[in-house]
Amino acid sequence: MFLTLSLTLAGLSLVIGPSVSAQSAPTPSTSASYSQDTDKSAPDCSYDLDAMLALDREAFDQDIPSGGWRGLSNAGCYEEAAELIRAWRHEKRDHASILYWHEGQMRAFAGQTGQAIALFELTRSSIDDDADFGWNHYVDGTIAFLRGDREGLDRAMARLAMMPEPSDNSFTRADGTVIRMSWPPNMNVLKSFDACWGRPYKDAYGDDCTQSPSN
């Protein structure tokens, strides 16, 4: 099972989770660039769509701090970032769950709770693949938070806490850097949801609620 590195930056980071494929969908039409008419107080959410679609997955999804869709996220353009992720995965026919998760996060940041939940559901692993990791418990806890289900969040945290730590829980990045992951993975994010219960996902996921969110 391939694990995706989790790093934090500007309130949003990469998911610790299994890389699996979710269901595919039709390819949307694309244009050479995207821009949005806004007032002077709004963030600049324009970007070069063709340039974004030309990136490989590493550059588009894993380039911290501001590569790919992350530049839009850092600017507060959450809905635009979600639409860009959707366009990229359709263009590339790449339906890895990490892309659905990150699009879901951007939808949640934008307040599109229903769409975010539907995307998060697509990232669930099979029972066998998740037996030693607990990704599905993290999904359960995240969705429970979005639905205002406090008992559901408590159950997810309890189940995730029971995951036995492997003898080697380190992760090797593409550049060869070895990073040891905290265990259980993503528990600090669920604790953040618990600490900031009732607040928007964007706030509860951020640094105000936890010192170092892992997803």
Cα distance, first to last residue?
A: 18 Å
**Measured on Cα atoms, how large is the radius of gyration?**
17 Å
Oligomer: single chain
Report the structural category. mainly alpha
Largest sheet: 2 strands, antiparallel
Q: How many helices in DSSP terms?
A: 10
| SSE arrangement, N to C | EEHHHHHHHHEEHH
**Beta-strand percent range:** under 5%
Number of beta-strand segments? 4
On the 0 to 100 scale, the average pLDDT is 83
Strand order of the largest sheet: 1-2
What can you see in these coordinates?
- With 215 residues, the chain is mainly alpha-helical.
- Among the domains are: 45-123; 135-204, no CATH class.
- It is built from 10 helices and 4 strands.
- The protein has helices spanning 49-53, 57-61, 70-74, 78-92, 97-109, 113-121, 135-147, 150-161, 187-195, 201-204, and strands at residues 8-9, 12-13, 170-172, 178-180.
- It has a two-stranded antiparallel sheet with strand order 1-2. A two-stranded antiparallel sheet has the order 3-4.
- Strand 3 and strand 4 form a beta hairpin.
- The longest helix is centred in the middle third of the chain and has 15 residues, at 78-92.
- 39% of the residues are buried.
- Mean pLDDT is 83; it is low at 1-11, 23-32 and 211-215.
Key traits:
215 residues; 4 strands; single chain; mainly alpha; two-stranded antiparallel sheet; globular; disordered C terminus; 10 helices
Give me the secondary-structure topology.
Blueprint lengths: L7 E2 L2 E2 L35 H5 L3 H5 L8 H5 L3 H15 L4 H13 L3 H9 L13 H13 L2 H12 L8 E3 L5 E3 L6 H9 L5 H4 L11
Antiparallel strand pairs: 1-2, 3-4
